[in-house]
Amino acid sequence: MAKLTAGITTSHVPAIGAAVDLGKTQEPYWKPLFDGFEFSKKWMTENMPDVVFLVYNDHASAFDLSTIPTFAIGCGESYQSTDEGWGPRPIPTVRGAPDLAWHIRQSVIQDDFDLTTVNEMTVDHGLTVPLSLLFGQPEEWPCLVIPFAVNVIVYPPPSGRRCYELGKSIRRAIDAFDQDLNVQIWGTGGMSHQLQGPRAGLINKDFDMKFIDDLIHRPDELADMPHVDYQRDAGSEGIELVMWLIMRGALDAEIREVHRHYHVPASSTAVGHLILENA
Amino acid sequence: MPLDKPYMDIPGTVIFDSDMARKGYHVNQFCMSLMKPENRERFLADESAYLNEWPISDEQKQAVLDRDYLSLQRLGGNVYYFAKIFFTDKKSVAYGSSTMTEYTEKEYMEMMVNGGRPIDGNRYIGEKDDG
Fold it and tell me: Which residue, A241, A219, A223, A83, is CA-closest to B35?
C-alpha cells in the first residue's frame, strides 16, 4: 500500500528560482537562504519519495481570471515550466503520477471535496521553486509529482479549516492506494509578505514563528484562524499559508520536526521551511 | 445582505475580492495577454493603440501608461497580473512593489534586507498619525 511518510513546507518566491538558474546561490544576498536547505537536500537523498503531492498556487500562469478553480488536481502525465515573462525556467520536465492522482481525485470528491481535474497545464514558480530548493539542479527530477493548485489570489481562498480537512481526506486516499509507494506531501507559499499597496514589504516574524509552532503542535486550533488574521498580520499575500494546512492535515496527529529554517528576505518575502516526519 | 469585509480596516492594503476582480477583469486580462512575446512587442511599439483594443476605462488605461500601480490596484488590478507588465519592462516584482510604497527601489530593498516593514503600527487604519 502507499504510505505517506513526511511533509515539507517551503516558500516559493520566483526570485529564488532565478537565483538558482543564474548561478547566484552563493552570493552574499542569497547564501544564508540556500544554506538552510543544505541539510534538506541531503535528507531528501536519504528519504527519497516515489511521489510528491505538491500543494502550491498558480500565479496567473496556467489559470487567469477566465477560470478560477479553488482546488485543482493535476492528473496529467507531464508538465512543462511556464514562460512567466523571462522564458520557461531551464529545468527538467515535471513528471506526473496519473495513477495515484486519478485515485486521489475520485476518493476526495466522494469525500465531498469538489476538486477541478486538470490534465493539461504548465506549472509556474509556485511548483518549480520548491523542487529546485529540495533537489538542486538535476538532469531529471528524482521523483514523480502530483501538482495540486489552490486559489489564493482571488479572495476568498478556501478557509484554513477546509484546507486542513482536505488534507485528512487526501491522506485517507493515499492510505487506500494499492501500490507500494513512498509519498510525501509538500505545502508551499508564505510566509509573511505583502507585494502590493502602500504596506508592501510587510514582514511579521513573530506571526511566522507562532504559525510554525501551532502548525506542528496545535493544528486543529490553527485551522480555525480566520482569513483576516492572515491578511492583517502576515500581509495580503501571506494568506498563502492556508496551503500549509493541507499538508498538516495529511500528516499524523503526532509528528516529529526534523528541520526548520527561516530567513528574511527573499525579495519581499519571509522564507520558511520545515521537514516534518510522521512519528 | 452585503458581504462581510473585515479586511477593509487594514492600512495600505486592497484585498482582491469579488468586487475588485469584477472591476479589474479586463485590465488584468490585458496584463495576461503580455505573457505572449508577440503581444509584448506590439504593446511596446504602441502602448495606447494596444490598450485601445481592450474594454477598459480611460482611468485604467492612463494608469497603465503611467505605470501607476497604486492607482491601478484601486481600479481592480492585482500584482500577479502587474507582474506581466513588470517583466515586459524588464523590471522585478520587488521593483513593482516598491513603486506602490513611500520608498525608492533602493530604499525598499534596504528595508527588506533589514527585516522588512514592521507590523507594529500597521495592523489597523488610524493606528499611526499617517494612517
Answer: A83
